[in-house]
């Protein structure tokens, strides 16, 4: 495997309805607006997205965007902002996280803006990322982690062709201190 720094990963991906684009300087206000609108839903599954426990601000969103771009260039993380092509509205985020370039293996993660949920945007984005990972990055394994009670997230895993490998019981804590079960999904291809 060549150095991850030499692996060509597109900064933009177009699907039928979406533009997936790496965050960049200046995206903080749009990201903050989407996160702020979605905090109640995101915090429901805070064990899966612990960053939403922190105070949210335009500045923290801008820092995230600039850090995300840096991590993308270094191939440490590959996050994308999801923009509806018709309206240019930021509808969520998705990415290939925690890469293990020796395999290669990636974790697929995502969240959807509350007003955009239920329209299939996340499934469309995840399908594009699966294609990228398998066709261009030679991924042998893709993982998707979801709270057992997050039925929407689990449905995305099913629609994107992931198989449930197991449930990690009492694996995380929710904001109220209760224990949460975590579902581990995967797509695996033989390394032939």
Automatic annotation (TrEMBL):
The keyword Transferase applies. Residues 40-184 form the N-acetyltransferase domain. It comes from the Bacteria. One of its GO terms (cellular component) is cytoplasm. One of its GO terms (molecular function) is protein-N-terminal-alanine acetyltransferase activity. SUPFAM superfamilies: Acyl-CoA N-acyltransferases (Nat) (SSF55729). InterPro entries: Acyl_CoA_acyltransferase, GNAT_dom, Ribosomal_N-acetyltransferase. Gene3D superfamilies: 3.40.630.30. This is N-acetyltransferase.
């Amino acid at each position: 495997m060549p150095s991850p720094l030499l692996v060509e990963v597109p900064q933009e991906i177009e699907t039928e309805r979406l533009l997936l684009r790496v965050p960049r300087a200046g995206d903080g206000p749009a990201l903050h607006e989407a996160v702020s609108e979605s905090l109640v839903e995101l915090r429901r599954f805070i064990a899966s997205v612990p960053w939403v426990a922190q105070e949210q601000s335009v500045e923290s969103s801008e820092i995230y965007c600039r850090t995300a771009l840096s991590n993308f260039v270094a191939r440490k993380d590959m996050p994308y902002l999801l923009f509806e092509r018709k309206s240019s509205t930021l509808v969520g985020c998705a990415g290939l996280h925690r890469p293990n370039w020796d395999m290669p293996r990636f974790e697929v993660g995502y969240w959807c803006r509350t007003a955009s949920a239920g329209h299939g945007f996340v499934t469309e984005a995840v399908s594009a990322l699966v294609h990228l990972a398998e066709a261009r990055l030679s991924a042998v394994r893709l993982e998707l982690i979801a709270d057992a009670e997050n039925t929407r997230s689990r449905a995305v895993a099913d629609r994107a062709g992931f198989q449930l490998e197991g449930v990690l019981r009492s694996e995380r804590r929710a904001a109220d201190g209760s224990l949460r079960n975590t579902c581990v999904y995967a797509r695996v291809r033989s390394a032939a």
